[in-house]
């Protein structure tokens, strides 16, 4: 049975994402303590793949995931999923809102339901835990009255939901990646995302040159983020996500150009996009047009002129 | 006495940064519960300025600060400071490492000293708190044996340091901004940073055009990050930090160009840079060269030709 590591503990958002990305009936799911530990299990061949969060629309990117993919032996993403960040409030059976004196969760989760707490549990004191799953355990053990958890925490628990589907930002989402060692790249679906990490020379204009290579070929950027490299002060690593698949000629030609001109380019995967539709390639950048242009060039080089 | 809000509670890294940015003898320091609350106090004229964290080299950017500056009525940064992220381990007097059964802090702080804990307190159970300052309180009250805190937490406390200057990443730093309502821009120092937020049209190449406007004028980018706008799916806001001051002609001309060509540009401040030296403007982009070029153009327009 294939083994899939994920950022644990059990019954958190990452387990929920993992159950979407792989069939739990045919895969063994193994919680890891940290993102780095989950990725290390893949690198050491102790698991076949790992699921890690990469980006949250409220909290921003997940630096341990970005750094974990940029450094160490190469890993590539083969799939992504996007989960809405909606929380459930779990209490012991029979507990009413008026009975709740303490509410507990990971500080990030408490921060994301602050408006709901102010309106619904204004007198409850906040207690921090190291995960949303640990919050449910604290309530089950009686050390707190209410836990802010992932929806999955309610499953198979003796606790009941006081409220569900809460969260201050209605459309907050977290994106998760399924990563493994490099191998076959998933086939293009027509709506794909490609992720890369680029290190450029440290001089004015070096990043604009990277983006021009993409723009010239009609490639639409979805996300960009600079992270300092730890090796050398002032040298940045850029994480870029864009629409398209490495199998497409426009993307392949752009990646080759970056490989020629940047200090370092690492391919982090091309896979089906889970968060919306990509626009079609602009005129002049589609696969048929690249093929036709290559044929034309061959002809002209051979002395022909159509 | 001028009033300065900061992300509280007291005795955390942000208070430490605030004491570097303003003289505590001549300013009243007011802790706020969240970044949003600190910024709101400035907008409502309840304080003169606020200190908030903007970027951590390990944990990444601080989204509430970025979003809080991009939205709402304009605020600008007038100064920055960079603090090393080094933690102190506080215990009750007489406690030895062998006595520590529980160690407590904000989960972010626990995550940043994990290697030290594994080597030095391998058997201590981790308890989460909502801040590093709350961890010190928990140890003082006897609900935990050791607290991972900011160095400032030791000051005036009955606790003693079991270890100081710990942290898994030796050169980790956090950058803090002093922000206030728009007014006078600090004078250029020759080593300045300018921060802006830009919203562009959503089409391939729009960001590369922004960066080309900077690159053409020899402006060196320090940091870039995209954040989704909440208003409309697929529309991104770009946070850019670059070397230079709005008073310099190269920066002024670039900002004017962005104002002409982007959907929205918000100036977040020009101030003395605290994290290293900026390179001088490349040939052709210095203030003297801009002045000379303007004189030349005036002359040619008037029919002269030098």
TrEMBL record, chains A, B:
Its EC number is 4.2.1.51. It catalyses: prephenate + H(+) = 3-phenylpyruvate + CO2 + H2O. Residues 195-273 form the ACT domain. Residues 3-181 form the Prephenate dehydratase domain. It is an enzyme of class 4 (lyase). The keyword Transmembrane does not apply. Pfam families: ACT, PDT. It comes from the Bacteria. InterPro entries: ACT-like_dom_sf, ACT_dom, Chor_mutase/pphenate_deHydtase, Preph_deHydtase. Keywords: Amino-acid biosynthesis, Aromatic amino acid biosynthesis, Lyase, Phenylalanine biosynthesis. GO terms for biological process: L-phenylalanine biosynthetic process. Pathway: Amino-acid biosynthesis; L-phenylalanine biosynthesis; phenylpyruvate from prephenate: step 1/1. GO terms for cellular component: cytoplasm. GO terms for molecular function: prephenate dehydratase activity. The record marks 174 as: Essential for prephenate dehydratase activity. This is Prephenate dehydratase.
């Amino acid at each position: 049975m294939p083994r899939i590591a994920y950022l644990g503990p059990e019954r958190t958002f990452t387990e929920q994402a993992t159950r979407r990305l792989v069939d739990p009936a045919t895969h063994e799911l193994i919680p890891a303590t940290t993102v780095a530990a989950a990725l290390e299990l893949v690198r050491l061949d102790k698991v076949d793949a790992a699921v890690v969060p990469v980006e949250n629309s409220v909290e921003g990117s997940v630096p341990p995931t970005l750094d974990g993919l940029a450094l160490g032996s190469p890993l590539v993403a083969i799939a992504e999923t996007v989960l809405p960040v909606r929380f459930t409030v779990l209490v012991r059976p029979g507990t009413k809102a008026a009975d709740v004196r303490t509410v507990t969760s990971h500080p990030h989760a408490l921060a994301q339901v602050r408006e709901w707490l102010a309106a619904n549990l204004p007198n409850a004191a906040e207690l921090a835990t190291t995960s949303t799953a640990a919050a449910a355990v604290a309530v089950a053990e009686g050390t707190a009255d209410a836990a802010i958890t992932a929806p999955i925490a309610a499953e198979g628990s003796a606790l009941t939901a006081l409220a569900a589907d809460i969260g201050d930002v209605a459309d907050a989402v977290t994106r998760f990646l399924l990563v493994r060692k490099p191998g076959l790249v998933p086939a293009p679906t027509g709506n794909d995302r490609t992720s890369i990490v680029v290190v450029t020379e440290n001089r004015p204009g070096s990043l604009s040159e990277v983006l021009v290579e993409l723009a010239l070929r009609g490639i639409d950027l979805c996300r960009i983020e600079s992270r300092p490299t730890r090796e050398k002060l002032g040298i940045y690593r850029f994480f870029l996500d864009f629409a398209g698949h490495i199998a497409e000629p426009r993307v392949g030609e752009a990646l080759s150009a970056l490989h020629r001109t940047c200090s370092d380019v690492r391919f982090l995967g091309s896979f089906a996009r889970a968060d919306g539709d990509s626009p079609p390639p602009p005129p002049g950048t589609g696969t048929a047009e690249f093929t036709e242009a290559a044929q034309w060039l061959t002809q002209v080089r051979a002395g022909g002129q159509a």
